[in-house]
From TrEMBL:
<dbReference type="InterPro" id="IPR047057">
    <property type="entry name" value="MerR_fam"/>
</dbReference>
<dbReference type="InterPro" id="IPR000551">
    <property type="entry name" value="MerR-type_HTH_dom"/>
</dbReference>
<dbReference type="GO" id="GO:0003700">
    <property type="term" value="F:DNA-binding transcription factor activity"/>
</dbReference>
<feature type="domain" description="HTH merR-type">
    <location>
        <begin position="1"/>
        <end position="69"/>
    </location>
</feature>
<dbReference type="Pfam" id="PF13411">
    <property type="entry name" value="MerR_1"/>
</dbReference>
<dbReference type="InterPro" id="IPR009061">
    <property type="entry name" value="DNA-bd_dom_put_sf"/>
</dbReference>
<dbReference type="GO" id="GO:0003677">
    <property type="term" value="F:DNA binding"/>
</dbReference>
<keyword id="KW-0238">DNA-binding</keyword>
<protein>
    <submittedName>
        <fullName>MerR family transcriptional regulator</fullName>
    </submittedName>
</protein>
Amino acid sequence: MRSSELARLSGVTVRALRHYHHVGVLAEPERRSNGYREYDVQDLIRVLRIKRLASLGIPLERMPDLLDDSDDDAQGLLNELDAELAGQIDHLTTQRDLIARLRDHNAAPDLPPELAPFLALFAASGLSPEMVKLDRDQSVLLAHLVGEDGLPHLASFYQRLSAPGLAPKVAAISERFAQLGPDSTQRDVSDLIEDFMTTFTAVIEDFAAAEPPIELAATADLVSEYASAIFNEQQRRALEQLEGRLDEFRPHPLPG
Protein backbone atom coordinates (compact mmCIF):
# COMPACT_ATOMS: atom_id res chain seq x y z
CA MET A 1 0.00 0.00 0.00
CA ARG A 2 1.12 3.55 -0.64
CA SER A 3 1.61 6.20 2.03
CA SER A 4 -1.76 7.80 1.32
CA GLU A 5 -3.55 4.48 1.89
CA LEU A 6 -1.54 3.75 5.04
CA ALA A 7 -2.43 7.19 6.34
CA ARG A 8 -6.12 6.64 5.58
CA LEU A 9 -6.27 3.21 7.19
CA SER A 10 -4.39 4.26 10.32
CA GLY A 11 -6.10 7.63 10.74
CA VAL A 12 -2.98 9.77 10.52
CA THR A 13 -1.71 12.17 7.89
CA VAL A 14 0.95 11.54 5.29
CA ARG A 15 2.89 14.34 6.95
CA ALA A 16 2.75 12.42 10.24
CA LEU A 17 4.16 9.34 8.52
CA ARG A 18 7.07 11.41 7.23
CA HIS A 19 7.66 12.67 10.77
CA TYR A 20 7.65 9.10 12.10
CA HIS A 21 10.33 8.28 9.53
CA HIS A 22 12.33 11.35 10.54
CA VAL A 23 12.41 10.54 14.28
CA GLY A 24 13.03 6.85 13.65
CA VAL A 25 9.88 5.20 15.01
CA LEU A 26 8.79 3.95 11.59
CA ALA A 27 11.23 2.42 9.15
CA GLU A 28 11.20 4.02 5.73
CA PRO A 29 10.58 1.38 3.06
CA GLU A 30 12.54 1.42 -0.15
CA ARG A 31 10.95 2.97 -3.17
CA ARG A 32 9.73 0.63 -5.85
CA SER A 33 10.54 1.02 -9.52
CA ASN A 34 7.58 3.36 -9.93
CA GLY A 35 9.09 5.75 -7.36
CA TYR A 36 6.50 5.11 -4.65
CA ARG A 37 7.15 3.67 -1.21
CA GLU A 38 5.32 0.44 -0.57
CA TYR A 39 4.02 -0.28 2.93
CA ASP A 40 2.59 -3.54 4.26
CA VAL A 41 0.29 -4.64 7.08
CA GLN A 42 3.16 -4.75 9.57
CA ASP A 43 3.73 -1.04 8.91
CA LEU A 44 0.04 -0.42 9.53
CA ILE A 45 0.22 -2.30 12.84
CA ARG A 46 3.29 -0.31 13.88
CA VAL A 47 1.58 3.00 13.10
CA LEU A 48 -1.45 1.92 15.13
CA ARG A 49 0.86 1.07 18.04
CA ILE A 50 2.54 4.47 17.69
CA LYS A 51 -0.86 6.15 17.90
CA ARG A 52 -1.73 4.15 21.00
CA LEU A 53 1.51 5.07 22.75
CA ALA A 54 1.13 8.71 21.74
CA SER A 55 -2.38 8.77 23.22
CA LEU A 56 -0.81 7.86 26.57
CA GLY A 57 1.55 10.81 26.33
CA ILE A 58 4.65 8.78 25.57
CA PRO A 59 7.08 10.90 23.53
CA LEU A 60 8.13 9.59 20.14
CA GLU A 61 11.76 9.47 21.27
CA ARG A 62 10.88 6.83 23.89
CA MET A 63 8.85 4.67 21.53
CA PRO A 64 11.45 2.66 19.56
CA ASP A 65 12.41 0.45 22.51
CA LEU A 66 8.76 -0.11 23.41
CA LEU A 67 7.79 -0.86 19.83
CA ASP A 68 10.68 -3.29 19.44
CA ASP A 69 9.94 -4.95 22.81
CA SER A 70 13.43 -4.11 24.05
CA ASP A 71 12.42 -1.81 26.92
CA ASP A 72 12.57 -3.80 30.16
CA ASP A 73 11.17 -0.91 32.19
CA ALA A 74 7.83 -0.36 30.47
CA GLN A 75 6.09 -0.37 33.86
CA GLY A 76 8.54 2.21 35.12
CA LEU A 77 7.73 4.43 32.16
CA LEU A 78 4.01 4.07 32.82
CA ASN A 79 4.61 4.99 36.46
CA GLU A 80 6.50 8.11 35.36
CA LEU A 81 3.69 9.08 33.02
CA ASP A 82 1.10 8.53 35.73
CA ALA A 83 3.02 10.72 38.17
CA GLU A 84 3.42 13.43 35.53
CA LEU A 85 -0.29 13.35 34.72
CA ALA A 86 -1.16 13.48 38.43
CA GLY A 87 0.96 16.61 38.74
CA GLN A 88 -0.77 18.17 35.74
CA ILE A 89 -4.18 17.33 37.20
CA ASP A 90 -3.22 18.93 40.51
CA HIS A 91 -2.00 22.03 38.67
CA LEU A 92 -5.17 22.26 36.59
CA THR A 93 -7.35 21.72 39.66
CA THR A 94 -5.56 24.57 41.41
CA GLN A 95 -6.03 26.79 38.37
CA ARG A 96 -9.75 25.99 38.27
CA ASP A 97 -10.08 26.78 41.96
CA LEU A 98 -8.37 30.15 41.44
CA ILE A 99 -10.61 30.93 38.46
CA ALA A 100 -13.70 30.01 40.49
CA ARG A 101 -12.65 32.34 43.30
CA LEU A 102 -12.13 35.20 40.85
CA ARG A 103 -15.47 34.54 39.15
CA ASP A 104 -17.27 34.43 42.50
CA HIS A 105 -16.21 38.02 43.11
CA ASN A 106 -16.46 39.22 39.51
CA ALA A 107 -12.75 40.03 39.75
CA ALA A 108 -10.26 40.70 36.99
CA PRO A 109 -8.07 37.68 36.14
CA ASP A 110 -4.87 39.61 36.87
CA LEU A 111 -5.76 40.07 40.55
CA PRO A 112 -4.32 37.86 43.30
CA PRO A 113 -7.28 35.62 44.24
CA GLU A 114 -6.42 36.04 47.93
CA LEU A 115 -7.18 39.77 47.67
CA ALA A 116 -9.99 39.72 45.10
CA PRO A 117 -12.95 39.39 47.53
CA PHE A 118 -11.77 42.33 49.62
CA LEU A 119 -11.17 44.55 46.60
CA ALA A 120 -14.71 43.73 45.47
CA LEU A 121 -16.02 44.90 48.85
CA PHE A 122 -13.99 48.10 48.65
CA ALA A 123 -15.38 48.80 45.18
CA ALA A 124 -18.93 48.20 46.41
CA SER A 125 -18.45 50.55 49.36
CA GLY A 126 -18.49 53.65 47.18
CA LEU A 127 -15.03 54.03 45.68
CA SER A 128 -14.84 55.98 42.44
CA PRO A 129 -13.76 54.07 39.30
CA GLU A 130 -10.39 55.84 39.46
CA MET A 131 -9.79 54.67 43.02
CA VAL A 132 -10.96 51.14 42.18
CA LYS A 133 -8.31 51.02 39.44
CA LEU A 134 -5.71 52.48 41.79
CA ASP A 135 -6.55 49.90 44.47
CA ARG A 136 -6.20 47.13 41.91
CA ASP A 137 -2.82 48.33 40.68
CA GLN A 138 -1.50 48.84 44.20
CA SER A 139 -2.72 45.40 45.24
CA VAL A 140 -0.99 43.71 42.32
CA LEU A 141 2.25 45.49 43.22
CA LEU A 142 1.98 44.81 46.95
CA ALA A 143 1.17 41.14 46.43
CA HIS A 144 4.32 40.80 44.36
CA LEU A 145 6.47 42.69 46.86
CA VAL A 146 5.39 40.71 49.92
CA GLY A 147 5.82 37.40 48.10
CA GLU A 148 4.09 34.10 48.77
CA ASP A 149 5.07 34.08 52.44
CA GLY A 150 3.68 37.54 53.10
CA LEU A 151 0.51 37.21 51.04
CA PRO A 152 -1.58 35.59 53.82
CA HIS A 153 -0.71 38.49 56.13
CA LEU A 154 -1.57 41.00 53.43
CA ALA A 155 -4.89 39.24 52.84
CA SER A 156 -5.58 39.36 56.57
CA PHE A 157 -4.87 43.10 56.51
CA TYR A 158 -7.32 43.55 53.63
CA GLN A 159 -9.88 41.45 55.47
CA ARG A 160 -9.70 43.76 58.47
CA LEU A 161 -10.09 46.81 56.24
CA SER A 162 -13.12 45.31 54.51
CA ALA A 163 -15.04 44.70 57.75
CA PRO A 164 -18.58 46.19 57.59
CA GLY A 165 -17.79 48.98 60.02
CA LEU A 166 -14.48 49.87 58.40
CA ALA A 167 -14.97 49.51 54.63
CA PRO A 168 -17.01 52.74 54.29
CA LYS A 169 -14.28 54.61 56.18
CA VAL A 170 -11.67 53.14 53.84
CA ALA A 171 -13.69 54.41 50.89
CA ALA A 172 -14.16 57.86 52.44
CA ILE A 173 -10.49 58.36 53.27
CA SER A 174 -9.44 57.00 49.88
CA GLU A 175 -11.69 59.50 48.14
CA ARG A 176 -10.34 62.35 50.27
CA PHE A 177 -6.84 61.31 49.24
CA ALA A 178 -7.94 61.24 45.59
CA GLN A 179 -9.29 64.79 45.92
CA LEU A 180 -5.98 66.25 47.09
CA GLY A 181 -4.72 68.66 44.47
CA PRO A 182 -3.25 72.13 43.81
CA ASP A 183 -5.94 73.83 45.90
CA SER A 184 -5.42 71.56 48.92
CA THR A 185 -3.88 73.17 51.99
CA GLN A 186 -1.42 71.74 54.47
CA ARG A 187 -4.34 71.58 56.90
CA ASP A 188 -6.22 69.35 54.44
CA VAL A 189 -3.24 67.01 54.27
CA SER A 190 -2.68 66.99 58.04
CA ASP A 191 -6.36 66.37 58.80
CA LEU A 192 -6.40 63.47 56.36
CA ILE A 193 -3.35 61.88 57.97
CA GLU A 194 -4.80 62.31 61.47
CA ASP A 195 -8.10 60.75 60.42
CA PHE A 196 -6.21 57.92 58.76
CA MET A 197 -4.20 57.18 61.88
CA THR A 198 -7.25 57.41 64.14
CA THR A 199 -9.20 55.03 61.94
CA PHE A 200 -6.56 52.46 61.12
CA THR A 201 -4.07 52.39 64.01
CA ALA A 202 -5.34 49.07 65.40
CA VAL A 203 -5.21 47.42 61.97
CA ILE A 204 -1.73 48.79 61.29
CA GLU A 205 -0.47 47.49 64.65
CA ASP A 206 -1.68 43.99 63.80
CA PHE A 207 -0.10 44.16 60.36
CA ALA A 208 3.21 45.37 61.81
CA ALA A 209 3.20 42.47 64.28
CA ALA A 210 2.82 39.85 61.54
CA GLU A 211 5.01 36.78 61.90
CA PRO A 212 7.12 36.39 59.90
CA PRO A 213 7.38 40.18 59.55
CA ILE A 214 6.64 41.68 56.16
CA GLU A 215 9.70 43.63 55.10
CA LEU A 216 9.28 46.13 52.28
CA ALA A 217 12.32 48.29 52.97
CA ALA A 218 14.29 46.67 50.15
CA THR A 219 11.62 47.75 47.67
CA ALA A 220 11.28 51.32 48.92
CA ASP A 221 12.78 52.76 45.72
CA LEU A 222 10.27 50.88 43.60
CA VAL A 223 7.35 52.05 45.72
CA SER A 224 8.68 55.61 45.59
CA GLU A 225 8.95 55.44 41.81
CA TYR A 226 5.37 54.18 41.61
CA ALA A 227 4.14 57.04 43.82
CA SER A 228 6.02 59.63 41.76
CA ALA A 229 4.44 58.37 38.56
CA ILE A 230 0.88 58.10 39.88
CA PHE A 231 0.31 60.81 42.50
CA ASN A 232 0.38 64.59 42.38
CA GLU A 233 2.52 66.78 44.62
CA GLN A 234 -0.03 67.10 47.43
CA GLN A 235 -0.71 63.37 47.44
CA ARG A 236 3.01 62.61 47.59
CA ARG A 237 3.33 65.06 50.48
CA ALA A 238 0.54 63.23 52.29
CA LEU A 239 2.30 59.91 51.71
CA GLU A 240 5.57 61.31 53.05
CA GLN A 241 3.85 62.49 56.22
CA LEU A 242 2.08 59.17 56.55
CA GLU A 243 5.39 57.36 56.12
CA GLY A 244 6.79 59.33 59.04
CA ARG A 245 3.83 58.43 61.23
CA LEU A 246 4.08 54.76 60.31
CA ASP A 247 7.74 54.62 61.33
CA GLU A 248 6.66 54.30 64.95
CA PHE A 249 5.12 50.92 64.15
CA ARG A 250 8.32 49.49 62.70
CA PRO A 251 10.63 47.55 64.99
CA HIS A 252 13.88 49.39 65.67
CA PRO A 253 17.16 47.60 66.44
CA LEU A 254 18.25 47.60 70.04
CA PRO A 255 21.28 49.77 70.82
CA GLY A 256 24.52 47.80 70.89
